[in-house]
Amino acid sequence: MTTKPGAAAQTRSERSDTRSLVLNGELLIYGVIDPYLWDEFDTSVRAIDVMASLAELSAEDTINVRINSPGGSVIEGLAIYNALTAWGKPIRVQVDAMAASIASIIAMAGDEIIMAENATLMIHDPWAVAVGGAEDFRAMANEIDRQKAILINIYAAKTGLKVEEIGALMSAETYMSAGDAVERGFATAVAEAMRTAACARLSNDQLARLLVAPIKLRAERPSPAAPAAQPQETTMVDPVPGGGTPAAAPPVPPAPAPVPVDTAAVRAEAVRLERERTTGILAQARSARIPADDPFVVNLLSGDRALVDARTDIMDEWSRRQEARPDNPPGDPRPSGIVVNADGVDRWVQGAERGLMIRAGLVKPEDADRGNEFVGLTLAELARSALTMRGVRNGHRDRMSMVGLAFTTMNAGPGYHSSSDFGNIIQNVAYRAMMRGYEEVDESFPLWTGKGTASDFRPIARVDLGLFPALDKVEEGAEYKYGTIADTGTTVQIATYGKVFAITRQAIINDDLGFFDRVPRRMGRAAKRTIGNLVYAIINGNPTMQDGTALFHANHGNLAGSGAAISVTSVGAAEAAMGVQKDEAGIGTSAGVVPKFMLVPITLKMAANTIMTAANTPGDGAQIANPVRGLATVVADSRLTGTAWYMAADPAQTDTIEVTYLDGVEEPFMDQREGWSVDGTEFKVRMDAGVKALHWRGLYKNAGA
Predict the structure, then answer these.
(1) Whether the predicted model's global pTM rises above the 0.90 cut
(2) Helix or strand holding residue 54 (H, E)
(3) Which residues are catalytic?
């Protein structure tokens, strides 16, 4: 998918090495965005060149990027955009003349985007050429829609414009002046127009040669100098017959002058070799998952280690780090180092879910992600984005049908059943809101009740372990005797409690975030209150126990003979009554059952706290020390009414009331299904739990006065 003009084919082996795009300390993105260089004077901008140039600018506090590009390859442009945004330093973008198509996406990487007064920014739909049958064209159309959604999200995150508005601008192929771009949020400021005189010294051809010079040294190497003239050996001349004068020896030609060394070429060659070494080290380090700013890589780059030796060093370092991994215990095979990363859809789901949580107020302000591109999307826009991410065309649909389609588009292939991405996001955020409400409820019953676990919904017998006050003496060589474990016949059984609520398509279109704050949150609170209601219903209802007698009864020794207000005397009587309790075998202990909690209505909370905290006996003028001070922790609850008050033992010491959960899971469960009776999606919140009074020994009641 590209706007690159046609060019001759080139094999991969003919691709040149990386080149520097840095000029005067700035990164120049001048030319077509293309992953290939088609000839030695090609000014195309590649992502690999941008990455190498960023490494060259690693000492700069701010990366200055100048853009003049008509666009090009979408994928290559996204790679450049990601490289800039991931660099970790402020990016200052200057659009000198044109930032069109994918080049406008690259411009969005800037923290500052400054356009020259006479510069232009253009956005439009991606396009491509397809060859084949109908399915091939459909597949290409879906891919174009998918890529458009990616570009829309980038524009939306930078500008704050709605997805629909950006989509319309792209479909219309919109050209923007500097002022228009600033007004719409595509740029942050307008700079003075570029002066022609400032560029007059470099022609297009000269600029091309300047950019390409580091790729390949065109200057020929100097020819070796001719060898110096050797001394001539003296030759004996035969006498001339007749006594004549010998002929003169031919003159020796002078040695040729040495060819001067081209110092510029030598310097350029040295630069090329060093760039090749640096690029090779960085590439090898990336393959080994060692960051470029790692001290090990920095030392290699700053030294004079040859590339072949540096590659060996990197592999050795990789092996050393693999051996030192915490998930690689001694003696175990070393992990392969292969990491399965989330695909684009998974990352979209994570980002969209996080953005919706931020909008719904389910994330603390200090924990909110900066720059989350989904925060500015309404629920309807999020639904459309979910469809676009899945390659589902939806531009022709009205919002009502589009939202319905988002709830039903599955994230599994043909023949599989799964829930939609959008529905999953809604469910996950609703669940978090429900759990927020569940955790917010300040319930009192967990303080003084026991907790049990059931693996299914069948009745379960609870065995009374008794008090076991002492061990039997075992004589030498004698047998140990079995202790008696009484089965009181108590059974516990869990049940399911729940309700259903719905999120309609109308709520999605109206962007009603209250569903993620009010409804699920209240359902979470209701789930926890349901268990509390069951607990206090036992206290108030005084159910019949396994022996056929009411829980609080004189026969159980846990009911005061006459009601009395909370006082030192009445609390002391309760302590004494619990202290003489015995198990089914008639066994007691020296301390008996010790009360640990006092359960009172809200109206008696102050009186109970006074009795439990006063140093001296309240109302006694003799200032006698309070004998029940600190005896029990006061638990006040509005579901206890009237004047009655209660004492409860530690559930770890003796059985009182047990709350039993299915598989020990205390939190409520949320399930989702596509709405059948409602036009939207339905959520079911349920709790699987049971509450039962296991024994009367650890509980005491005074009817009060």
Answers:
(1) no
(2) helix 47-56
(3) 101, 124
